[in-house]
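tool_call: predict_structure(chain=1)
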Amino acid sequence: MTAKPLTERLDDIANLTGIPALTTRPPKRRPLRGLALVALVLGTVGMAVTLFGGRVLLIGDGILLAGFVLSGWLPLMGPIKPWMSFTERVDELDAQIRAKAYLTALPIILFAAVCGLVGLPVLAWLQHRPPAEMVALGGFAAMYLLILWNAVPTLHASWRHQPVEELDD
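tool_result:
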């Protein structure tokens, strides 16, 4: 009796999780208002806590990271179809939903980026923060911008448009 090679055994283990089966069919797009709101609130609270500095910096980082992880799921299952997809057909309505959602999100992201670019140096100057902490805050601000990039368009598309299944009723 011959044993299976390592690659086949790893493939068998991966197939047991069910994740490879998810890639064979297009995902079911659904409104994710709750998940988008939770990711946005966690990101905002986490960023606010990190700005206090000191010992609560790591607590804020954990909260921000939880919002970041949650926001990562939004483009995968949310109502906005991806830009280039071989498995999902994107029609004019999908393109219009995507355009309106991102045109709503971009000014919000721009405002947050400008606040960070102006606010972080002012914060460093006023509070005499160590340079390493300011570099970390810059990374946290970048993470917060990514949360906004994932959550705001999903939230806009979820509230603005009904899913196709509900439109048929």
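agent: The two ends are 58 Å apart (CA to CA). Proceeding to next step.
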